[in-house]
Structure formats: structure tokens, C-alpha cells
Specification:
With 109 residues, this protein is an all-alpha fold. Helix content is 72%, strand content 0%. Helix 1 packs across helix 3. The longest helix is centred in the C-terminal third of the chain and has 31 residues.
């Protein structure tokens, strides 16, 4: 039994929840959420375009019964994994690294 439609919808929903956790208004459209994420520095323009395509694919599965191939679903998974990794996991690791680096010593005149 293949569940590609359900998986595509789940990926879209994961993005939606991630955006909300980053402080984006959940009542906004996906396009507006993507713009907000870009404007607030969470994603760049290229990633915004890729994530828009990913959310459109999830919408097509949810509302038009589109069934992504395994390869298409893998692309969607890679996009959401990258978004999650950079904004939730790596962001925390970067904060820890920043706090671990000692300050530069004062230069002598």
C-alpha cells in the first residue's frame, strides 16, 4: 500500500507547523508565510522558491489527489528536512558554539 498522498500532505503540514514555531502567523497563506520567513532571515530567496514548490505539491495532493512518485516525494522530504535541520537543530548548535568561543584578548597599545 502506497501512502504518497498522505506523506505529501504531512510534509506540507510539517512546514506549516515549523513556520508557526518560528513565529509566523498560522492564519497567513503559504505564500505569505514563505515571504515572512524570507523577510525575517529564516530562509533565502532560493529556498523560498523551493519550499513554495514543496507546499504547492502538498496542496495538490490534499486538494487534487496528486500522487507524487517516490523520487518526487524524496525531493519533498529533502526540502523539509533541510528547513527543519537549519532552523531548529543547527540553529541551536550554532548558539552553543557562539557561547563556547572565548572573547578576543585586548590588544596592547
Amino acid at each position: 500500500m502506497q501512502l504518497s498522498v498522505l506523506a505529501a500532505i504531512g510534509i506540507r503540514t510539517t512546514f506549516d507547523r515549523g513556520a508557526e514555531l518560528l513565529g509566523i502567523d498560522p492564519g497567513r497563506t503559504f505564500r505569505a508565510k514563505l515571504d515572512d520567513l524570507r523577510d525575517q532571515g529564516f530562509i533565502g530567496e532560493t529556498e523560498r522558491d523551493s519550499l513554495q514548490l514543496m507546499t504547492e505539491a502538498g496542496n495538490a495532493s490534499a486538494h487534487r489527489g496528486w500522487r507524487p512518485t517516490d523520487e518526487q516525494l524524496e525531493t519533498m522530504l529533502q526540502l523539509i528536512e533541510s528547513f527543519i535541520h537549519r532552523n531548529f537543530i543547527l540553529r541551536h548548535d550554532v548558539s552553543n558554539l557562539r557561547g563556547a568561543i572565548p572573547a578576543r584578548p585586548q590588544r596592547r597599545p
